[in-house]
Amino acid sequence: MDSSQIVALSSSLNDYQLNSQTSTLVLKKALDNQQAVAANILEAIPQLPSNPAIGRNINTTA
């Protein structure tokens, strides 16, 4: 194997590793962002009243 081929292979592997690390970091950031959005949505859901009979029935005859 020629020394220039070894240098080219090493450079290609370094580029591949950098691209892989970058993709992983972007994925982690996207997952963290989705987790934050989901947590905000869950916090926005109103709590049920302390009396379980309140707010669960609809009076359709009124």
- Helical amount among residues, as a percent range? 55-70%
Number of helices: 1
Mean pLDDT: 86
Helices and strands, in N-to-C order? H
User: What structural category do the secondary elements indicate?
Assistant: mainly alpha
What shape does the CA trace take? Answer: rod-shaped
Low-confidence stretches: none
Which value, in Å, is the CA radius of gyration? 28 Å
How would you characterize the largest beta sheet? Answer: none
Oligomer: single chain
How much beta, percentage-wise? under 5%
DSSP E strands, number: 0
Alpha carbon gap, first and last residue: 89 Å
Give the topology, please.
Blueprint: H1 3-44
Describe the structure.
This protein has 62 residues and is mostly helical. The protein is built from 1 helix and no strands. It is rod-shaped and about 90 Å long. Helix content is 68%, strand content 0%. The mean pLDDT is 86. The chain has one helix at residues 3-44.
